[in-house]
Specification:
102 residues, alpha+beta, 4 strands
Length: 102
């Protein structure tokens, strides 16, 4: 559920759901995402030391994603949307709910 100002949201995603989540976001933006590079970047991030990995997905829409992995494999995700229609923002929020930690 969105709790940040319009265009910004965050949540926790299990490590196993991370790449499907990123793939869904990239598909929505009509862009390609290098999932191998993203997986490597997320693996080197660390939520405990606030060492984040960021990626920009740019296609029909621009989405900035920032990730920080925890020792148990969950990933903290910040999503920043720039100038998107509210309907796209709501779909991003739904994807975060679908793929997120339940």
């Amino acid at each position: 559920m969105r709790t940040e100002p319009r265009g910004t949201m965050h949540g926790w995603i299990p490590g196993s759901n991370l790449l499907p989540f990123v793939g869904a976001i990239a598909g929505m933006a009509r862009s390609e995402a290098d999932l191998t590079a993203i997986a490597a970047g997320v693996d080197s991030s660390d939520a405990d030391s606030e060492d984040w990995f960021g990626v920009v997905i740019e296609g029909d829409s621009r989405v900035e994603l920032y990730f920080a992995r925890t020792p148990d494999g969950d990933v903290l995700v910040d999503v920043e949307l720039d100038g998107l229609e509210e309907s796209v923002e709501l779909r991003c929020c739904q994807l975060l709910d679908i793929y997120g930690v339940q």
